[in-house]
Design a protein that fits this description.
By secondary structure, the protein is of the alpha+beta class. The protein has helices at about 5-25, 30-35, 40-50, 70-85, 85-105, 110-120, 235-250, 255-275, 285-315, 320-345, 345-350, 355-365, 370-385, and strands spanning about 125-130, 145-150, 155-165, 170-175, 185-195, 200-205, 215-225, 230, 275, 280. The longest helix is centred in the last third of the chain and has 29 residues, at about 285-315.
């Protein structure tokens, strides 16, 4: 594996980091305290990202994107995380790129790609991914949402919860059961526009972290969806979901890895300036040990992230690597965020400094896209093959 950057990738990282530092994350402390649904705040940054091309990084130019390879896309998203302290915004960007755009690219018809991808790239459309239901949780395939054939389409009935971007989405990839007797082989995916009768974006769900972008529920009340909006063949939903999860688990933390790098730089600077008992605190073993642990987590997180990008860029399956990356990156970000608070002491505990926000933002990562315990089960299962 060669992880050395090309001249183009070096320029991409530099330009993206500079954009994120200068254009994103304004008034973040106040916006985090207020929550997500002030559209003038988070959507302004979202549209700025769209204009800069970040929403179309991995989408071919034929569909309105930049057509970058996997490694370049991951490097750009990591750079956004370094430059932009808004972990909610970067999570939303990654969620749309990997859980909405990627399955559309892989399984969508030509008509579907032309209809939806340009709008997702330029910010006219916001996408969501609806799989989890109130009763399913980690058992992703225990779905209650039903899709019944009717005329030249399907009638969908059910609900999805904990859906990132749900209250603001213009379309959602929704998974429903077309044949309950076939269990996960009866699962089918649909592209459902928010304008369709019977589709309701329910109230925003308040959450512990990543508060700057919305999360909510989707309600489908006899919502008719034409066959033209079915994503892939009937019964292919399980394969589409697994495909999307392999990409999402591999890379949804790309920006958080960038944030970990910025976090470490900020902690090194603070520890080198803060004096206690006549010396800077980086001279105390307890502090230096935490700084070393943060660097170790960052290095291993980057290696796992880049290995997954290298494999997916070659067209290889990376189910094991995706689970390893998702597990380690989520746990590493949470551990380093706690270390950052300890290094900053009382200053790290108060909201005005912004240090404690990373810890709150990191906790969701050990739950969404499959909990850490689920990833451990997957890793052992895949090692036995």
């Amino acid at each position: 594996m060669d992880f050395s950057l090309t001249a183009e990738q070096t320029r991409l990282v530099s330009e993206t980091r500079r954009f994120a530092e200068t254009q994103l994350g304004a008034n973040l402390v106040d916006r985090d305290a207020a929550g997500a649904l002030d559209a003038d705040d988070w959507q302004a940054d979202w549209q700025a990202c769209a204009r800069h091309g970040l929403l179309g990084l991995a989408v071919p130019t034929d569909y309105g994107g930049q057509g970058l390879d996997v490694m370049s896309t991951v490097l750009a998203l990591e750079a956004v995380g370094y430059g932009c302290p808004d972990n909610g915004l970067t999570l939303g960007l990654n969620g749309q790129i990997w859980a909405v755009q990627e399955p559309l690219l892989a399984f969508g018809s030509e008509a579907q790609k032309k209809a939806f991808l340009p709008g997702l790239c330029d910010g006219r459309l916001i996408g969501a991914h609806g799989m989890t239901e109130p009763q399913s949780g980690s058992n992703a395939f225990a779905l209650q949402t039903r899709a019944v054939r009717q005329d030249d389409g399907y009638v969908l009935t059910g609900s999805k919860t904990y859906v990132g971007m749900a209250p603001a989405c213009d379309l959602a990839i929704v998974f429903a059961t077309t044949n309950p007797d076939h269990k996960h082989w009866g699962l089918t995916a649909f592209i459902v526009e928010a304008s369709r009768e019977g589709f309701r974006r329910a109230a925003h769900q308040h959450k512990m972290g990543t508060r700057t972008v919305p999360m909510g529920t989707l309600e489908l009340d006899a919502c008719w969806v034409p066959t033209a909006n079915r994503l892939g063949p009937e019964g292919a939903g399980a394969s589409i979901f697994q495909h999307a999860m392999e990409w999402e688990r591999s890379f949804i933390f790309a920006s958080h890895v960038g944030r970990m790098a910025r976090q470490l730089d900020e902690c090194l600077a603070y520890a080198g300036e803060r004096e206690v008992f006549g010396q800077t605190i980086d001279g105390f073993q307890s502090v230096s040990n935490r700084l070393a642990d943060m660097r170790l987590r960052l290095e291993t997180a980057q290696l796992l992230l880049y290995k997954a990008a290298w494999l997916k860029g070659r067209g290889d399956h990376a189910a094991l690597e995706a689970a390893l990356a998702k597990l380690h990156l989520s746990e590493a970000f949470m551990a380093s965020s706690l270390d950052a608070i300890r290094i900053h002491g009382g200053r790290g505990y108060v909201s005005e400094a912004g240090v404690e926000r990373d810890l709150r933002d990191s906790v969701g990562g050990v739950i969404y896209s499959g909990t850490s315990d689920i990833q451990r089960q997957l890793i052992v299962k895949l090692m036995k093959k």
